[in-house]
């Protein structure tokens, strides 16, 4: 039996050394050390041995099992190491190669302009107010001194959903809603940025959907000079400290008196060029003192409270600030255009 065990050990070790992969090693282990293997059979036959032979054979069996197991473990480790090395070779990273550029985004120019304007007015004590883009006719027109049938409604060709529901044509409804929430008590000091919609043919200077930013201040003893001071500060911060402004008489149903606001041309400094059509001035927004009717409809005593309002198109401000000649560039998502304003 001793010779049999020695022969099994040599056979097993020879096969282990000749194995080509981990599967073959596992098969050898099962064949020699498994429950049905020859070494297990030898152990089962030990009961027929004498009491003197039994411990001797048992010791030999343990040595044979240990040597075969050690050889198996050695070869398993060798194959596993070979697999790791092969995988490392396949996944080798050449650290001498230059890195691949990662393109990073930046704010859209319209977003940047809106946030710059918001920061400016927040610094002057205004707060930001928002409202629904699908609006009631009452807030969009009637609460702003534009009753049904008023001819000025034709100036804002609207997208109506029902007779009394439409896409807002300006952000002025936010002003009306905010004044209503104050229940006739001032002060009210807000700006209202947001998208507005009008049935307009899209071209280089018009769009059926655009961004508007309006401002409102209602309090006691608010004067036109306060409005001019606020707008002058805005113009200088947005377009340069050398900018001047001028107010021209105009008409808006919700303000009285009403004005158009111009800034001195940033291209020619006011001497006259093609950008300002030789006038030296560029129109940027409309403004005026809040009409008493608008104050009364919002619950304010027009004899006690006065206020001013102004409104501008974010696209127009961005076009003037960045020298963009076509409003449609802001909406085409052309990265060649957007790259000019930051990382894309």
TrEMBL record:
Mention one GO biological process in which this protein takes part, according to its record. phenylalanyl-tRNA aminoacylation
**Residues that bind Mg(2+):** 256
Q: Which family does it belong to?
A: Belongs to the class-II aminoacyl-tRNA synthetase family. Phe-tRNA synthetase alpha subunit type 1 subfamily.
Name the UniProt record assigns to this protein: Phenylalanine--tRNA ligase alpha subunit
Protein biosynthesis in keyword set: yes
Q: What keywords tag this UniProt record? A: Aminoacyl-tRNA synthetase, ATP-binding, Cytoplasm, Ligase, Magnesium, Metal-binding, Nucleotide-binding, Protein biosynthesis
Q: Which GO terms describe its molecular function?
A: ATP binding; catalytic activity, acting on a protein; magnesium ion binding; phenylalanine-tRNA ligase activity; transferase activity; tRNA binding
Catalysed reactions, as listed in the record: tRNA(Phe) + L-phenylalanine + ATP = L-phenylalanyl-tRNA(Phe) + AMP + diphosphate + H(+)
Provide the gene name from the record.
pheS
The protein's matches in Pfam families, at most eight in alphabetical order, are given as: Phe_tRNA-synt_N, tRNA-synt_2d
Q: By its UniProt entry, which InterPro entries does this protein fall under? A: aa-tRNA-synth_II, aa-tRNA-synth_II/BPL/LPL, Phe-tRNA-synth_IIc_asu, Phe-tRNA_ligase_II_N, Phe_tRNA_ligase_alpha1_bac, Phenylalanyl-tRNA_Synthase, tRNA-bd_arm
Mostly located where? cytoplasm
How many cofactors are bound and how? Binds 2 magnesium ions per tetramer.
| The protein's required cofactors | Mg(2+)
**What PROSITE patterns does the annotation carry?**
AA_TRNA_LIGASE_II
Q: Which domain of life is it from?
A: Bacteria
Compartments (UniProt record): Cytoplasm
Q: Does the keyword tRNA-binding apply?
A: no
Q: Which SUPFAM superfamilies match?
A: Class II aaRS and biotin synthetases (SSF55681), tRNA-binding arm (SSF46589)
């Amino acid at each position: 039996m001793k010779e049999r065990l020695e022969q099994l050990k040599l056979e097993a070790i020879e096969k282990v050394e000749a194995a080509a992969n981990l599967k073959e090693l596992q098969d050898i282990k099962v064949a020699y050390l498994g429950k049905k293997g020859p070494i297990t059979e030898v152990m089962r036959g030990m009961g027929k041995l004498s009491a003197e032979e039994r411990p001797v054979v048992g010791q030999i069996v343990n040595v044979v099992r240990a040597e075969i197991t050690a050889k198996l473990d050695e070869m398993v480790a060798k194959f596993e190491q070979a697999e790791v090395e092969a995988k490392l070779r396949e996944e080798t990273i050449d650290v001498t190669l230059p890195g691949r550029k990662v393109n990073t985004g930046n704010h859209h120019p319209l977003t940047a302009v809106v946030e710059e304007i918001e920061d400016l007015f927040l610094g002057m004590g205004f707060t930001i107010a928002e409202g629904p883009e699908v609006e009631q006719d009452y807030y969009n027109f009637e609460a702003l001194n534009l009753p049904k049938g008023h001819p000025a409604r034709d100036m804002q060709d609207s997208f109506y959903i029902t007779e009394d529901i439409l896409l807002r044509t300006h952000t002025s409804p936010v002003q009306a809603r905010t004044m209503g929430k104050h229940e006739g008590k001032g002060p009210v000091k807000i700006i209202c940025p947001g998208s507005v919609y009008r049935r307009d043919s899209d071209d280089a200077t018009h769009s059926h959907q655009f961004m508007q930013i309006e401002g409102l201040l209602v309090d006691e003893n608010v004067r036109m000079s306060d409005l001019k001071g606020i707008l002058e500060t805005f113009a200088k911060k947005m377009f340069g400290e050398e900018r001047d402004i001028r107010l021209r008489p105009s008409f808006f149903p919700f303000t009285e008196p009403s004005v158009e606001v111009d800034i001195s041309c940033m291209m020619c400094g006011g001497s006259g060029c093609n950008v300002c059509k030789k006038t030296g001035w560029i129109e940027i927004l409309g403004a005026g003192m809040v009409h008493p009717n608008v104050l009364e409809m919002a619950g304010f005593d027009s004899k006690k409270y006065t206020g001013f309002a102004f409104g501008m198109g974010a696209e127009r401000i961005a076009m003037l600030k960045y020298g963009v000649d076509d409003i449609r560039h802001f909406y085409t998502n052309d990265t060649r255009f957007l790259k000019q304003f930051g990382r894309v």
